[in-house]
Each structure stands twice: as structure tokens, then as C-alpha cells.
Design brief:
The protein contains 13 helices and nine strands. It is of the alpha/beta class. Strands 1-2-3-4-5-6-7-9 form an eight-stranded parallel β-barrel, surrounded by eight helices. It starts with a helix and ends with a helix.
């Protein structure tokens, strides 16, 4: 398949963290998430996922299942889900009940991506889990329990998820290393790699996933999603200016002072070591005008053979973020919109 045809046929999705910008509020972040999801639906994006995080100032998606319901209620066809739920933070029964409820409210539209990281620091993990903090070694057992609650009831089963049982909400394993890649392959589940913040192990993890894959009742062949940072602007120069927002965001994380999204800036004050660390975090990022982004996306798909791209766009102004997703959809030929739908979404 030619590279351009591959790009046009690859599903595009959105990963949202409900970022609060400097001078903004959680209410504004939630409102923008809703508007973005509505616009994404009109642009034929495949999914809109929200990621669980805790104790990170400026990130407002801690009550992930609540936000999923908010977004699903404001849309009608786009798939909505978790990218993901950090399963060791929760009782598998509680997650099965939450997502069983969501699936019952929005049938056929809910995804459940799960990961084993805490989605925050060790203090947040202790606050969430009490004295039972683990390093994720119990994740396979928690996943098995969750899948049982969402599947068909068994004769010996004493605890049931009502609702949740037999809803078979699609489960995706998320990872930034080879652990979940191997587990997803062995279980025959779809796999999503977090190259939007940990691009280094991407290619080895994909190789392990595909090599270890065993066909299952869920999948006959591997299905790999890849999360990547993308900013598309009208020109390369404008995109590079907007990119200073995610650059500063990662710089603040490295310095241990996370906070709201900062506005773009003409200069960034950092050391060479900090610059190298940020560059590593953004190693899979694709920033530029439409022509540059299309070319680099083609190369990325050729290199990774990804089945789906889930895009993170951390622009300070919501209008720039929206415009980036519009340009991205347009350059891969996915726009089939109703202007009335678009205008209604912004009222």
C-alpha cells in the first residue's frame, strides 16, 4: 500500500487529559473537552479517550469514568473511553460496574483501556490504594478479575457486576514498556503504546506484541494503537511557536513543578540536559504545517505499521488545538462534516 494511501486509511483518534491552562479552570477544561469531542465526531475521528491522572496540578481528568459519561452524553456516534484506567488504583468490581453502567447508557460506544501505572506519584498511589500499594505485579490478576466481571456469568461465581455482567466492554491494554505488550499479545487483546510521553521503547514493544500475539475470541490478528503528540498549524513556523507549550509542560514535569498549560513563548530557558530530556519525551512528536505533518505521519506509519493513531495536542489556546485537529483530519481526507453540526457544537 502506498504511504499516502496508508495514511488516508489509518483511523485517527484523540487522547484528552482535560488540561487546565494558565488562567483557566476545571470547568473550562471540561467544556473544551466536550466541544472538542463534538467537533471530532463531525470530523470522523474514531475515538475520544480520557486518561486517568492524579495529583498533577493542571490535569483535571482524575474522575475518568464521570468525564467519559459527560463526553458520551454530548456526542452520538464517536467511541468514548478510557486511555486509560489505571487498574491497580481500583477494585476491578468497581470498574466493571462503572463501565457496565456507561455501556448500558451508551451501548456500543464505550472502550475500556487499562494500564498498570499509578497515573501519578507514589503519594497519590498510597492515598488511592491505602496500604496495598504494589509495583504492578498483580496487574494480570486484576485484569483477569475485571474481564470475568464483564463477561458471561459462571456457575460458581459469587460476586457479579450489576450492571456490567455480559456487557463485554472492549478492553485495550495500555503500556509504555514491554510488560503490557507481551501480556496483550498472550491474551489476544488490542494494545495501545504511550509514545506521546515514552517513545523510546515503542518499536521493541510493538515487535514483542506482534511476536507474542495469540488469536483470541476478541482478535484474530494484532491491533496496535500508538499515541503521539501532534500539532498542525497553518505554517511550520506557527507550529513551532505553539510547540513551546508542550515543551514547557514537560520541562515543568522534569523540574518537579507540574502546573497548568503555559502559553507559548519565543524563548525557553533551560539547560542542555533539560533540553535533551524533553527531546527524548517528545521523540515521536510531529509538529508543523500540513505538508510537513503529512510527510512525517507517512514515515511514522511505515516505521511502526500502526493500525491506529491516537493523537495528543497540547496547545494553550483551545482555538489552536481545535484548528490542529481540523487540519489533521483534512490532510488525511477524513472530513465529512455537516456545517450545522459544527456550529451547534460551539453554541
Amino acid at each position: 500500500m502506498p504511504a499516502s494511501a496508508r495514511l488516508a486509511s489509518t483511523p485517527l483518534s484523540i487522547l484528552d487529559l482535560a488540561h487546565i491552562r494558565q488562567g483557566g479552570t476545571p470547568a473550562e477544561a471540561f467544556r473544551n473537552s466536550r466541544l472538542l469531542a463534538q467537533r471530532a465526531e463531525s470530523l470522523n475521528y474514531n475515538r475520544f479517550w480520557l486518561a486517568e491522572h492524579h495529583n498533577i496540578r493542571g490535569v483535571a481528568c482524575s474522575a475518568t469514568s464521570v468525564l467519559i459519561g459527560h463526553i458520551a452524553n454530548a456526542t452520538s456516534k464517536i467511541r468514548v473511553g478510557a486511555g486509560g484506567i489505571m487498574l491497580p488504583n481500583h477494585s476491578p468490581l468497581a470498574i466493571a460496574e462503572q463501565f457496565g453502567t456507561l455501556e448500558s447508557l451508551f451501548p456500543g460506544r464505550i472502550d475500556l483501556g487499562v494500564g498498570r501505572a499509578p497515573g501519578g506519584d507514589s503519594a497519590a498511589a498510597r492515598a488511592l490504594r491505602g496500604p496495598f500499594v504494589t509495583s504492578g505485579e498483580d496487574f494480570p490478576d486484576l485484569l483477569d478479575e475485571l474481564r470475568r466481571y464483564l463477561g458471561k456469568p459462571q456457575p460458581s461465581q459469587r460476586v457479579h457486576a450489576y450492571p456490567g455482567e455480559d456487557t463485554n466492554v472492549p478492553i485495550y491494554l495500555l503500556g509504555s514498556s514491554d510488560f503490557s505488550a507481551r501480556l496483550a499479545g498472550e491474551l489476544g487483546l488490542p494494545f495501545a503504546f504511550a509514545a506521546h510521553f515514552q517513545p523510546g521503547p515503542l518499536l521493541p514493544a510493538l515487535r514483542i506484541y506482534r511476536a507474542s500475539f495469540r488469536p483470541s475470541a476478541v482478535l484474530e490478528r494484532p491491533y496496535a494503537m500508538v499515541g503521539i503528540p501532534v500539532i498542525v498549524a497553518d505554517s511550520d513556523e506557527q507550529a513551532q511557536f505553539l510547540t513551546t507549550t508542550p515543551v514547557q509542560m514537560f520541562l515543568n514535569l522534569i523540574r518537579g513543578v507540574p502546573g497548568p498549560l503555559p502559553p507559548p513563548t519565543k524563548t525557553v530557558e533551560w539547560t542542555s540536559a533539560e533540553r535533551d530530556t524533553v527531546a527524548a519525551k517528545l521523540g515521536a512528536a510531529i509538529f508543523g504545517g500540513p505538508e510537513r505533518v503529512a510527510s512525517r505521519l507517512n514515515s511514522f506509519l511505515e516505521e511502526t505499521d500502526a493500525d491506529e493513531l491516537i493523537v495528543v495536542t497540547n496547545a494553550y489556546n483551545f482555538e489552536d488545538r481545535l484548528h490542529s485537529y481540523e487540519l489533521l483530519a483534512s490532510l488525511v481526507g477524513k472530513v465529512q462534516e455537516n456545517p450545522q453540526t459544527v456550529s451547534a457544537a460551539n453554541r
